[in-house]
Amino acid sequence: MPKSKRNKIVSLSKTKKKGKEHKESIVNSIREAAESYNSIYVFSFENMRNLKFKEFREQLKSSSRFFLGSNKVMQVALGRSASYEIRPGLYKVSKLLRGDSGLFLTNMPREEVESLFNKFEESDFARTGSIATEKVELLEGPLDQFTHEMEPFLRKQGMPVRLNKGVVELVSDFVVCEEGKSLSPESARILRLLGIKMATFRLNLICRWSPEDFELYMEGLDESDVECA
């Protein structure tokens, strides 16, 4: 009787014992889940927000399981080649774990999964280093949205402000950020004060695997890319 592929010993060398044990625990968890769920998806994420993701994960925990972390460890768990895959075709899933990505294992119908992921979108304040989605410019004159106590803080952010009879006043036009350019720490703080959200947390499906078939979602990808990856 042929030996089960999932029982193969995987060596995770050059790591401390504790780190090695942790990685092996993740590998085993993924392998057990891969045997328990009908479908496995790879998804990518943009502007990750941990709290929002935790809420989404909790919503689906009765029928599904998420894995995020080291792509290499997840690849090892599924099998990085056809010789090591734990179920037929899973090495294709493994090869699409790149960059900011994760695994979603579920018993939910495909249509329901696609609908949930396509609809999932959460706006939030952009962080330092994010790319501005629009130009924001404040015109010379009173800034009624700010109290007089905030004037010193605004000056520290580089804004040309002063107090005029207790009202914060911009003494000249001020560009907070330019579309397509990276946000400085000061720009990110000012946008938050203005209530302008430029970040959108999204989850994008990349592929779906089931025992019956394999499907790619991302435009520009085909199965030859997976074979050669």
Helix % is: 25-40%
Mean pLDDT across residues: 89
Total count of helical runs of at least 4 residues:
8
The first-to-last residue Cα distance is 32 Å
Q: Shape from CA axes?
A: elongated
Which spans of ≥5 residues are poorly predicted at pLDDT below 50? none
Q: Helix and strand succession? A: HEHEHHEHEEEHEEEHEEH
Summarize the main sheet: 6 strands, antiparallel
Total beta-strand segments: 11
Determine the strand fraction and express it as a percent band.
15-25%
What class do helices, strands and sheet pairing give?
alpha+beta
Rg over CA atoms:
24 Å
Short description:
The protein is of the alpha+beta class. Helix content is 33%, strand content 24%.
Describe the 3D structure.
33% of the residues lie in helices and 24% in strands. It is built from eight helices and eleven strands. Helix 1 (17-36) crosses helix 3 (71-78). The mean pLDDT is 89. Residues 126-196 form the Large ribosomal subunit protein uL10-like insertion domain. Its main location: cytoplasm. This is Ribosome assembly factor mrt4.
List the helices and strands and how they pair.
Elements: H1 17-36, E1 39-46, H2 50-60, E2 64-68, H3 71-78, H4 90-94, E3 101-106, H5 110-119, E4 121-124, E5 136-138, E6 141-142, H6 151-156, E7 161-164, E8 167-170, E9 174-177, H7 185-194, E10 199-209, E11 214-216, H8 223-228
Antiparallel strand pairs: 1-3, 1-10, 2-3, 4-10, 5-9, 6-8, 7-8, 10-11
Helix pairs in contact: 1-3
InterPro entries: Mrt4, Ribosomal_uL10, Ribosomal_uL10-like_insert, Ribosomal_uL10-like_insert_sf, Ribosomal_uL10-like_sf, Ribosome_Assembly_uL10
Protein name: Ribosome assembly factor mrt4
Subunit structure: Associates with the pre-60S ribosomal particle.
